[in-house]
């Protein structure tokens, strides 16, 4: 993590949101928000003080007393309004996102749109937060359930999707009757804050949504705070494991979506052109900074002959600033991220993989200071190599080989991660075998990035996830609510008494 710096007066400062007010932090620690294509300082973000974190949680705790009693219809109408405001401001949101994160404008719009889908789903809360009823389970006895909010919940979000992932979290938490404290990534918080402003404009009451910024100390404060009941996290495996262990030890619910090493299988009967396009887009899009990126392609049988064609496809992609028309691959988020990726490329060569396409040090006219790495392709990649074992999080595609579909499935199932996987084939039998035998939570069949729409739940698995319930869809309703089961019997004056019953029976 870059060392915090003191703010300069000429650069805007990112605010905290506490009790419905956007306030200037009183901290002495700040971090620059930097355009990764130009190194321009866009703003400075504060590392909130312990007192400011406590104030945000206290505000949420106070607001919960009334928000939990707010009708489902009133809650739903806020998110109907928010989705309208997001649509009206899509261009501004995408431009902000591109400036601070680096991804292309079309990809930035996609980032916002996938979050917008969750906002739309939150507006359906009346149908989602339904309990169950069993009438007359015993003589005159009914049993039913209530899905009641927990209280103050919190979210910790990563740099790679600064619009989508915050929108995974606070709309569903708030729609189910909770209040929320959000900690965005300190690397690119500006688009997140704009979305928060729109949420306030849509009618989120003061204190229901609060925002604090910072690094490890703020994360730990959220994990430890006695008044926070549940934490949602998306980010690296190292930090996610820390958050899960610390939060659950403190008695909180936690869901942590973490690192990945997503594989796909390419069978020789696959549609070649469509498959090559899918591999290039899923591997190099967003400069590879997706937890669902396809970073390993397992070429089966004669598909191993497609390597030159894949390299040729990768060479057609344009590397430039995210605002430039026709750009396919923008910069990595920081200088440190670029240096890490180039270091791993060097290690891949040293480990014996064949560097089919070297994307290091591309010439990008007009953006000579940018954090660019172009599409990079390795072949002959095997377990034990650093580029296979580690999540590179850059535009690097590793090509492995297998003789049969069974061999390819065994390779994938041997990897500890289980975020996403895909198969490219025209064989229904092969696709069915794959979906049944693969031990990965999210499966694509001729779909390279199988992130489900919000009607379903994000279902990463194994080392890619800690916690039983996913961050949106039906599962997240259960995560953000407590199931209360009520068993009731009502008597009237005509009811005949059967005396004292000392058994467990309800008869």
UniProtKB/TrEMBL annotation:
Residues 22-486 form the Aldehyde dehydrogenase domain. It comes from the Bacteria. Keywords: NAD, Oxidoreductase. InterPro entries: Ald_DH/histidinol_DH, Ald_DH_C, Ald_DH_CS_CYS, Ald_DH_N, Aldehyde_DH_dom, MeMal-semiAld_DH. One of its GO terms (biological process) is thymine catabolic process. It is an enzyme of class 1 (oxidoreductase). CDD domains: ALDH_F6_MMSDH. Transmembrane segments: none annotated. PROSITE patterns: ALDEHYDE_DEHYDR_CYS. One of its GO terms (molecular function) is methylmalonate-semialdehyde dehydrogenase (acylating, NAD) activity. The keyword Oxidoreductase applies. Pfam families: Aldedh (PF00171). Its EC number is 1.2.1.27. Belongs to the aldehyde dehydrogenase family. PANTHER family: MALONATE-SEMIALDEHYDE DEHYDROGENASE, METHYLMALONATE-SEMIALDEHYDE DEHYDROGENASE [ACYLATING], MITOCHONDRIAL. This is methylmalonate-semialdehyde dehydrogenase (CoA acylating). It comes from Xenophilus arseniciresistens.
């Amino acid at each position: 993590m870059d060392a915090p710096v003191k703010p300069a007066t000429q650069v805007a400062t990112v605010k905290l949101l506490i009790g419905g007010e956007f306030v200037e932090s009183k901290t002495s620690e700040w971090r620059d928000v930097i355009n990764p294509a130009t190194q321009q300082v866009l703003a400075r973000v504060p590392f909130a003080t312990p007192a400011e974190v406590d104030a945000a949680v206290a505000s949420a705790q106070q607001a919960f007393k009334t928000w939990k009693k707010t009708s489902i219809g009133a809650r739903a109408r806020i998110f109907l309004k928010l989705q309208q405001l997001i649509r009206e401001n899509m261009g501004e949101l995408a431009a902000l996102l591109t400036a601070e994160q680096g991804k292309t404008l079309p990809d930035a719009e996609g980032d916002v749109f996938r979050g917008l889908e969750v906002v739309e789903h939150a507006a359906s809360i009346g149908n989602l937060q339904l309990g169950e009823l069993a009438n007359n389970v015993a003589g005159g006895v009914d049993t039913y359930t209530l899905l009641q909010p927990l209280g103050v919940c919190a979210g910790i979000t990563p740099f790679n999707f600064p619009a989508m992932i915050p929108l995974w979290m606070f709309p569903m938490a708030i729609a189910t009757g909770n209040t929320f404290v959000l900690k965005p990534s300190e690397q690119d918080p500006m688009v997140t804050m704009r979305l928060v402003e729109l949420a306030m404009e849509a009618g989120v009451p003061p204190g229901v949504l609060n925002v604090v910024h910072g690094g490890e100390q703020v994360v730990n404060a959220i994990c430890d705070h006695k008044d926070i009941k549940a934490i949602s996290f998306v980010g690296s495996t190292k930090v996610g494991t820390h958050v899960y262990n610390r939060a659950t030890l403190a008695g909180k619910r936690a869901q942590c979506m973490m690192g990945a090493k997503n594989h796909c299988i390419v069978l020789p009967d696959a549609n070649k052109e469509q498959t090559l396009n899918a591999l290039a887009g899923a591997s190099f899009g967003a400069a590879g900074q997706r937890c669902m990126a396809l970073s390993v392609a397992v070429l089966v049988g004669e598909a191993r002959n497609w390597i030159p064609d894949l390299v040729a496809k990768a060479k057609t992609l344009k590397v430039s600033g995210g605002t430039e028309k026709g750009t396919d691959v923008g910069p990595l988020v920081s200088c440190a991220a670029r240096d890490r990726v180039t270091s791993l490329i060097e290690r891949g060569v040293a480990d014996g993989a064949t560097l089919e396409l070297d994307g290091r040090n591309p010439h990008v006219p007009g953006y000579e200071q940018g954090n660019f790495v172009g599409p990079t392709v390795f072949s002959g990649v095997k377990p034990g190599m650093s580029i296979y074992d580690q999540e590179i999080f850059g535009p690097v595609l590793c090509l492995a080989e297998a003789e049969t579909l069974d061999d390819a499935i065994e390779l994938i199932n041997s990897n500890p991660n289980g975020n996403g996987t895909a198969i490219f084939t025209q064989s229904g039998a092969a696709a069915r075998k794959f979906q049944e035998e693969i031990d990965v939570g999210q499966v694509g069949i001729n779909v390279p990035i199988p992130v489900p729409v919000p009607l379903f739940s994000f279902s990463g698995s194994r080392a890619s996830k800690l916690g039983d319930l996913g961050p949106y869809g039906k599962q997240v309703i259960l995560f953000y609510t407590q199931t209360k089961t009520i068993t009731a019997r009502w008597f009237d004056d005509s009811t005949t008494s059967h005396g004292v019953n000392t058994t467990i029976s309800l008869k």
